[in-house]
What we know:
Largest sheet of chain A: 7 strands, parallel
Strand content of chain A: 15-25%
Oligomer: homotetramer
Shape of chain A: globular
Amino acid sequence: MKAGIVGASGYTGGDLIRLLLIHPEVELTYITSRRYQGKYVKHLHPNLRGITDLRFDELSPEKASECDIIFMAVPHKASMNIVPDLLAVGLKVVDLSADFRLKDPDIYERYYCPHTHPELFEKAVYGLPELYRDELKKAEIAAAPGCMAASAILGLAPIIAEKFIDRDHIIIDAKIGSSGGGKNFSFASHHPERANVVRPYGAVGHRHLAEINQELSLIVKQPIKVGLSTHAVSMVRGILSTIHVFLTEPIENKDIWKPFRKMYNKEPFIRFVKQPSGNYRLPDPKAVIGSNFCDIGFMLDEDIPRLVILSALDNLIKGAAGSAVQCMNIMLGIEETTGLLIPAPHPM
Amino acid sequence: MKAGIVGASGYTGGDLIRLLLIHPEVELTYITSRRYQGKYVKHLHPNLRGITDLRFDELSPEKASECDIIFMAVPHKASMNIVPDLLAVGLKVVDLSADFRLKDPDIYERYYCPHTHPELFEKAVYGLPELYRDELKKAEIAAAPGCMAASAILGLAPIIAEKFIDRDHIIIDAKIGSSGGGKNFSFASHHPERANVVRPYGAVGHRHLAEINQELSLIVKQPIKVGLSTHAVSMVRGILSTIHVFLTEPIENKDIWKPFRKMYNKEPFIRFVKQPSGNYRLPDPKAVIGSNFCDIGFMLDEDIPRLVILSALDNLIKGAAGSAVQCMNIMLGIEETTGLLIPAPHPM
Amino acid sequence: MKAGIVGASGYTGGDLIRLLLIHPEVELTYITSRRYQGKYVKHLHPNLRGITDLRFDELSPEKASECDIIFMAVPHKASMNIVPDLLAVGLKVVDLSADFRLKDPDIYERYYCPHTHPELFEKAVYGLPELYRDELKKAEIAAAPGCMAASAILGLAPIIAEKFIDRDHIIIDAKIGSSGGGKNFSFASHHPERANVVRPYGAVGHRHLAEINQELSLIVKQPIKVGLSTHAVSMVRGILSTIHVFLTEPIENKDIWKPFRKMYNKEPFIRFVKQPSGNYRLPDPKAVIGSNFCDIGFMLDEDIPRLVILSALDNLIKGAAGSAVQCMNIMLGIEETTGLLIPAPHPM
Amino acid sequence: MKAGIVGASGYTGGDLIRLLLIHPEVELTYITSRRYQGKYVKHLHPNLRGITDLRFDELSPEKASECDIIFMAVPHKASMNIVPDLLAVGLKVVDLSADFRLKDPDIYERYYCPHTHPELFEKAVYGLPELYRDELKKAEIAAAPGCMAASAILGLAPIIAEKFIDRDHIIIDAKIGSSGGGKNFSFASHHPERANVVRPYGAVGHRHLAEINQELSLIVKQPIKVGLSTHAVSMVRGILSTIHVFLTEPIENKDIWKPFRKMYNKEPFIRFVKQPSGNYRLPDPKAVIGSNFCDIGFMLDEDIPRLVILSALDNLIKGAAGSAVQCMNIMLGIEETTGLLIPAPHPM
Lengths: 348, 348, 348, 348
């Protein structure tokens, strides 16, 4: 089968190209970039020198239609105006922008901008296979999750419906590397400014909040509002979400293990991490960087009824390109882990 | 006046030496190190080459007694057994270990070990001038705060007694650089392991919790228990405490400004940071590294009744050696800011 | 075919495991670790959690003999005493230590220690396929090169015999990440000490000099002695060798291109990098991290007759485990690039 | 006495402000910025919050004339057109741009652009007090050296005239942090791109070469041309110049010590670093960051007649603002070390 990528010049696009080049059952035949049309991949993605001779092409639904599936790696707003043309020529789409993640156009507008194609929302499935595997099989659009949202939702989904969870006092304190900001540079991303920071750039109001609240609310069938604060830290890749959950009653470790095991026991890309010792006894982005894994672990606070869930992933892989390829595998009827169980070098 | 340092070979000791060498009214005349006795300072602290010819001496209360004040920069447990001998020769002591920070020997024992000299607790004042300036003037022992505790307490003290604060749901999510672990190396601090991490090393149960709960409880005259989770991040110096506070009622920015201004308006080392734009519109350790400042700012969450307080300081300065020197100034009747308003180089 | 690794608990061992796990034609069946015998791989290599259930076994030539080839990932000196037993049971060996890289036992002794099995030197081939592809096909021992040596030799080999090269004034100024020191921690590798350094730890006398001089001398059939200075820089992986070569006569770019193209044109893991613009217009370890590529480029100095060759590789891959697997492929008659053309994530 | 800074919004300007604010004998009364006129210093330099209430003013020779001395911290080309107006109102000038460092307008033009005021060259003294202390006492213009040039020249000056130095084969391999590029951001300085690099951005042809060749040639009274290659490494501050010098005859350590001691024995900001052991046994930028020191050390190569000189400094201090203030002290008849012997925090 054949895949294409619209907007493949950025960091997420680069990781999509990489993952598709090593995918044994899908061929990457078409990549576009408005700005770099005609240029070789290697000029934009130095890691792919010597690996591929692909060139960036123009965006054309006709050319795209020779593929079986298209990944959208353009910014939100740009995506919503291209996707309809791709669907029109019968393509399946995995959208990595925010444009098809939300169910409610008003909420989309509040966090982003007015949406020009809300009629497509019903064709879109939120692109977390751990939550929507069955729906993804038939989806026309998979909306790959926001990186921070993926990390938070995967950490909370198994236990949010438990009665011992105080749903009114949930805090997600996220730490993310600089690649999360994409390829657009600014004074904020200038190395002397960005190195060695713990910058609370989204202390409140981060856009991924919309997805997190939506997905958690869908699970419990009641509106949930979490508190999300995001911090830029001094690394290139990775997210750790520290999820602070107050408890309504005293519980034991097994009360947490049980629902997590139930939901994730057979998940190929979720790893439970809770060892008695070692540098990686709890999730740390460092152990997942370069891979499609999301590591999840927890600690119970003995002082106050509190549960601390740690959820770590690579923002560009499980938080973007990796989840997207996982969605593709499901949508195309390919074994879900195909091309994604490549272990990452360590340490990095 | 003359000052000495017991245990001056570590990172905190190094910063104490540095601060005392540039202090215009106090002379550093005596530094000890069991391990490096006889060696020059420059062999342990390369930044002090060309600045001082001091040598590490043996520990001797007699020699110490030629000073007016002694800083204890040895680990907890070691300190409690030396301090009595120093008090006995009439010295004032600023202790940077945990040994005299707590009021309750049982709590000390729970978090550390049995205490051999709890009778001295009444002579000790918690070394945060912002809270105990008057008491420090006459203190025999100033117990410099734990770095994480200093950051958390300074962030919460002004508002913890406000009626809109939900004292039962307070989360402190702290991020700290590698110097916080001191000079003792291990596989956990091995550079390939420690670089690029967000390691939740103290997801629950961090020792500084004891001080934080104690000091906040003293302010409100009721027991308070906060949730503290600490993370090692990829930098050498600095702490950011992100303090998540749920609110019992809707408030406005000015409701927070008011108590903060009231408490800190004249504090020389607390800076309010809340600008509309810029890389440093909220506190970030990067802006305080190398200085005795603690930057404090906040954001109100519009989605849920939540207040996010950010508190940033240099763990080795305002979180240790700087607060200690500030205490010394007060204890010796010297103008409090003396030697401490040196701006730090930026960016680092 | 089956492969085993003796001493698989370190960083190089970890990357060997990783590369062999993704190798489509070789199965990793046997890994040893004296210290971690019985433990699962995932306890030592967090990136391999969820990928393999292998456990560390004891070292036993019998058990090893069920493999077709054994990788030695133990330190020098340890290796030389194990290899004979492996050869005795008919195994082929890829040794990643320094023990079989040199031809002259006296030079080995000068840089390392007395060698107990110099009689095996004639069975060993220096493990750089770019130089010894044919010899490796029949080798019993492949001696994978030192990381710094690989980088330097690959940068110099194509032009060292050219008449315009002043062989008496060659400087190799190398910069390396912290993983180059392996897993053994010390105060030198303590993160607060090791971060943000440019530490000239091997200004003169680095051991890899022995290999570099040997291999360059073999090419020109005359003794060559280069000047090598190595620096620890603030990153985890990667080496850049900046090779400064004085010229005996004025030359043009094409005079350099020609011999490089001649030697490397068909090499699958050597990439020429010399673009007019861009962040990666010349080799930078950042573009090869995580891959088996060695990027080579150069600049001619217009001011003085000088050639600057840049050679970048990942010290743990092309500088160790990757070259070792490349050797294995050749020794076992497998297509040389098998399992090694996996592109690395970028940026890291 | 009073000082002013023209163009004080950048990194060098920030360090100048900082150094002048702590200077006990000079008052900083006037700072300009075209872009930030009217803004407070704290908006641009977060480290100076709470330290000063200075605002950026417009550039006006009249206003400047109330000072005794003006620092030019604007880019080259801008500086040359302002300096004449400042001299015209009787001011002394310390120029941190490249505009008055060179003696030959043709060479200036080759490396920079045509010079509009070469007639001022004779009033300018190269701002390295270690070389031009006497000349600086009466200078109207001190031309603070380029950071890379300062490091290289200080490393070579004492021995360049020795007969055992092969002046035709000198290589300076420099490694520099990201602050060396100033405050202007670009894709090259984007954190995901700039972190973890060893980027040979100036493999040949770096502009500081002009100063280095000039100053070394002046010492030996013969034209010298060195080979300079500069690398961006993963840190914010600091330069290490590794200076590779071939020798015309065998020498001993003392042959190097002697000329170095002779020239630098009384220099307050040059530290010899050559210890038998320890993380800082040779110069490393990490030990000088935040200070005005230049650490110099060396190793003799036993294999080939080669001398490796290591020279480390903070590019923004001894490589810019610190040397500039040192010049100012000399020009104003103030004790040279005034305000500059502040030790830096360590580790950073």
